[in-house]
């Protein structure tokens, strides 16, 4: 049965989608069967996997409101090498429509039951908000991977996310835990980043992943080609780091 992870941080632009897409590709490089779920109406994970968000028969929106099954919605993304449950702007409407539906936080989890044994890993790219969409992701997950930049306010923002995860753990999903904090867009030449990185390790110990993702322009260029950075330029430092991170995740789940 698949292990399911949310890539979440309510801060915008911290590298969630880049992590979701490249961890998916990094896990494929480790011979894992991967499903990437795009839970963000921006549809960036969809496009970044080479799936055209403008031409979807079904998307995660239809799944959440019960108009399509997961099996009817998941596509194989051939260039990326993994499967995708895509999203586009339709999903913005789900936030309102879900409020009146039964099991509103559990709808993604219930939909995934049908297909989860086809995968080793299911990754969920969350939107930059602690919304009902993110809640559906957290209820479907075994754990949360938190990408973060080592900047001054990074730790402060983390406490809201940690509190939300605690509440979901207590009330909705007793399986949920933080798997780890992933340092991304890291620039070792910046003293402040080194300092924040050290603070993180002091506060969170082995909850900080060993792998560090460097700032690397090839990772930023890849989405405009509809490719994960790991496929676009496998030899680039950023790509290599995500492949290494895939290996670290494979090891991490053995102890779960
Ligand atoms: P949002 O909150 O809007 O969903 P996000 O958290 O998903 O954003 P990304 O879209 O992954 O963040 O990244 C934000 C920007 O930073 C993008 O332009 C992306 O290409 C770039 N980026 C992400 N990681 C790296 C990296 N390691 N090196 C260089 N650029 C990066
Ligand atoms: Mg994103």
Account of the protein in words:
This protein is an alpha/beta fold. The protein has one domain: P-loop containing nucleotide triphosphate hydrolases (Rossmann fold, 3-Layer(aba) Sandwich). It has helices spanning 16-29, 44-48, 60-65, 70-73, 91-98, 107-112, 132-140, 154-171, 191-204, 217-221, 229-232, 237-254, and strands at residues 3-7, 34-38, 75-77, 82-85, 121-125, 143-148, 177-186, 208-214. An 8-stranded mixed sheet has the order 3-4-2-5-1-6-7-8, with helices on both faces. A hairpin with a 4-residue loop joins strand 3 (75-77) and strand 4 (82-85). Helix 1 crosses helix 12 (237-254). The longest helix has 18 residues, at 154-171. The chain is globular and about 50 Å long. The two termini are 13 Å apart. The model has no long low-confidence stretch (mean pLDDT 96). Adenosine-5'-triphosphate (ATP) is lined by residues 12-18, 40, 42, 44, 128, 184-185, 213, 215-216, 219-220, 238.
Q: Please, what is the CATH homologous superfamily?
A: P-loop containing nucleotide triphosphate hydrolases
The number of E-state strands comes to 8
CATH C-level category:
Alpha Beta
Which structural category do the helix and sheet elements fall into? alpha/beta
Pfam families: AAA_31
Coiled coil: 91-118
Keywords: Coiled coil
Protein name: AAA family ATPase
List keywords for this structure.
256 residues, alpha/beta, Rossmann fold, 8-stranded mixed sheet, globular, binds adenosine-5'-triphosphate, binds magnesium ion, AAA family ATPase, coiled coil, P-loop_NTPase, DNA_Partitioning_ATPase, AAA_dom
């Amino acid at each position: 049965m698949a292990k399911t992870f949310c890539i979440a941080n309510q801060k915008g632009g911290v590298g969630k989608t880049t992590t979701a897409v490249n961890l998916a590709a990094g896990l494929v490089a480790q011979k894992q069967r991967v499903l990437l779920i795009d839970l963000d109406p921006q549809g960036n994970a969809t496009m970044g996997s080479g799936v055209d968000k403008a031409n979807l028969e079904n998307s995660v929106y239809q799944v959440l409101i019960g108009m399509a099954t997961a099996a009817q919605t998941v596509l194989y993304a051939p260039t990326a090498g993994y499967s995708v449950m895509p999203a586009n702007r339709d999903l913005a409407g789900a936030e309102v429509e879900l409020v009146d539906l039964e099991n509103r936080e559990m709808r993604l989890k219930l939909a995934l039951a049908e297909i989860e044994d086809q995968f080793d890993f299911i990754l969920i790219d969350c939107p930059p908000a602690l919304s009902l969409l993110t809640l559906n992701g957290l209820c479907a997950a075994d754990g949360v991977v938190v990408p973060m930049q080592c900047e001054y306010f990074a730790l402060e923002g983390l406490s809201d996310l940690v509190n939300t995860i605690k509440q979901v753990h207590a009330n909705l999903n007793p399986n949920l835990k933080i798997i780890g904090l992933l340092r991304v867009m890291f620039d070792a030449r910046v003293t402040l980043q080194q300092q924040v990185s050290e603070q993180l390790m002091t506060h969170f110990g082995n909850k900080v992943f060993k792998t560090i993702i460097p700032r690397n322009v090839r990772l930023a260029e890849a989405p405009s080609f509809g490719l994960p950075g790991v496929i676009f330029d496998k030899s680039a430092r950023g790509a290599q780091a995500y492949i290494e991170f895939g290996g670290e995740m494979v090891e991490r789940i053995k102890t779960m």
